[in-house]
Amino acid sequence: MTAAHHHRPIVESAPAHDLRKATWHSEDDTAAFARQLAAQPLLADAFITLHGELGAGKTTLVRHLLRALGVTGRIKSPTYAVVEPHEAQGLAIWHFDFYRFSDPREWEDAGFRDIFAGPGLKLAEWPQKAAALIPPADIAIHIEALDDHERCVTLQAHTARGRQLLHGMDA
Question: Quick one: which of 28, 41, 37, 70 has its CA closest to 141?
Answer without folding.
Answer: 37
